[in-house]
């Protein structure tokens, strides 16, 4: 069919092609005007309350549609330029016909995607639970590559995933320093293109810029994984060999093995200083190399914690490998190593050299953002542990995506250990419901008052067993 159309078009292209191109350009331009006057670029936003009414003002255009419009404009510009430079031969006009048809198909796709926002039935005007909305039955219509390689995603669940996940308290920054978490799929890089260019502005086979802080900002903004670079990373000027494994776990790492350029502290003693103006401001005891933080009270009415031995006894000789997703310098992993359990510690360098210290202790640092899919295969880990991480800042939808990814990498009958999750009393039930909906067996479960503030918060800890499914 397309060949027949192309053949017919080639006979009348001298007058038809320019008209079609200008018509398509007008349609695209009109689409851009409509889009820009009604909705903002970047993403679709969904509120995270359990029952809410959405309005047209809460809809934000995804990057994929923004990119469609941009690519269409670029393609039209290229074709218009070619019309002025190419000779008027039939083969050339046949090529133009194919390209015009491709743009027409792309415009149709764009209109179809926009209809999801403004068509019937509308997304807004209905009372729905946006957190629990099921997008799994979205249309799986064929998706074609555009002339310049852009691809349009039709999956409703993917659109839901790529939307920013705002913090529970709107407008307040979390411990990552952002007001929303941007799930990683690469689309977010288009919104921070200047910083990506800055990150990739280096000379090949030369020293890389000292710009890991820029890279981490990109990761926290959802631009992850980052592009590879062909340059060499800088080494500490007075680097010394690490301590032997039998002594590195519980000794203070050498200052000389850390590049301190982008940290407030410039030596290790500063990290553990009690002087708030001088020390590490986010966590006063994160870098204390001791087991003191795991000296847990046995009083169940006041302590939200479980001991490591208590948890390991639940699965004798079954816990061998796992993940700790926490703001950590590796102490949990160090204790587990002494018990012959290998733990990868997932963290970012949030104002201090977390990754470097973990590595200098002879442990495994996993440098990964909260919005990234874990780099483990399905059903492979024995345990996933998290402490002081999934707290009351987190939106319910983001919590779902995290829990399901942890569930994916845990093996059947594996252990999910949530340690000292805290939030306001009024929000606790909402969060507990999210854990309950996973269908895990409750091995240990405890909710106690959090007494270090105004008394309006609770601690929650649980050890849960993943069920067999399918």
UniProtKB/TrEMBL annotation:
Q: What is this protein called?
A: S-adenosyl-L-methionine-dependent methyltransferase
Source domain of life: Eukaryota
Q: Which UniProt keywords apply?
A: Membrane, Transmembrane, Transmembrane helix
The transmembrane residues are 21-44
PANTHER family given in the database record: METHYLTRANSFERASE TYPE 11 DOMAIN-CONTAINING PROTEIN (PTHR44067:SF12), S-ADENOSYL-L-METHIONINE-DEPENDENT METHYLTRANSFERASE SUPERFAMILY PROTEIN-RELATED (PTHR44067)
- Is Transmembrane helix there in the keyword field? yes
- Tell me yes or no: is Transmembrane among this UniProt entry's keywords: yes
């Amino acid at each position: 069919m397309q060949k027949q159309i192309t053949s017919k078009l080639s006979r009348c292209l001298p007058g038809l092609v320019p008209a079609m191109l200008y018509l398509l350009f007008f349609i695209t331009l009109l689409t851009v005007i409509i889009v820009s006057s009604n909705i903002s670029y970047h993403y679709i936003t969904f509120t995270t309350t359990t029952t809410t009414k959405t309005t047209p003002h809460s809809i934000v255009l995804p990057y994929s549609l923004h990119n469609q419009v941009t690519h269409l404009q670029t393609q039209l510009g290229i074709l218009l330029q070619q019309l002025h430079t190419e000779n008027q031969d039939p083969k050339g006009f046949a090529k133009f016909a194919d390209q015009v048809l491709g743009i027409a198909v792309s415009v149709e796709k764009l209109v179809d995607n926009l209809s999801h926002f403004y068509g019937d039935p509308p997304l807004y005007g209905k009372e729905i639970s946006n957190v629990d909305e099921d997008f799994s039955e979205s249309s799986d219509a064929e998706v074609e590559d555009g002339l310049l390689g852009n691809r349009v995603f039709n999956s409703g669940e993917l659109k839901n995933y790529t939307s920013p996940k705002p913090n529970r308290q709107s407008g307040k920054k979390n411990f990552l320093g952002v007001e929303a978490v941007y799930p990683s799929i690469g689309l977010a890089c288009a919104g921070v293109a200047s910083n990506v260019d800055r990150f990739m502005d280096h000379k090949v086979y030369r020293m890389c810029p000292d710009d890991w802080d820029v890279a981490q900002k990109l990761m926290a903004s959802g631009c992850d994984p980052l592009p590879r670079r062909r340059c060499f990373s800088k080494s500490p000027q007075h680097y010394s060999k690490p301590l032997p494994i039998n002594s590195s776990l519980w000794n203070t790492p050498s200052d000389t093995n850390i590049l301190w350029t982008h940290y407030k502290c410039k030596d290790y003693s500063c990290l553990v200083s009690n002087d708030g103006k001088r020390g590490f401001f986010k966590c006063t005891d994160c870098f204390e190399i001791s087991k003191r933080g795991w000296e847990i009270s046995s009083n169940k009415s006041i302590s939200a914690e479980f001991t490591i031995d208590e948890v390991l006894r639940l699965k004798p000789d079954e816990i061998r490998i796992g993940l700790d997703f926490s703001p950590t310098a590796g102490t949990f992993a160090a204790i587990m190593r002494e018990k012959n359990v290998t733990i990868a510690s997932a963290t970012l360098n949030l104002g201090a050299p977390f990754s470097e210290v973990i590595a200098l202790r002879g442990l495994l640092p996993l440098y990964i953002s909260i919005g990234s899919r874990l780099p483990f295969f399905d059903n492979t880990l024995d345990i996933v542990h998290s402490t002081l991480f999934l707290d009351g800042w987190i939106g319910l939808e983001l919590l779902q995506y995290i829990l399901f990814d942890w569930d994916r990498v845990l093996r059947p009958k594996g252990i999910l250990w949530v340690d000292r999750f805290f939030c306001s009393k009024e929000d606790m039930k909402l969060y507990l419901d999210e854990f309950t909906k996973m269908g895990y067996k409750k091995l240990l479960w405890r909710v106690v008052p959090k007494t270090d503030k105004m008394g309006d918060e609770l601690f929650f800890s649980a050890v849960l067993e993943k069920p067999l499914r399918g």
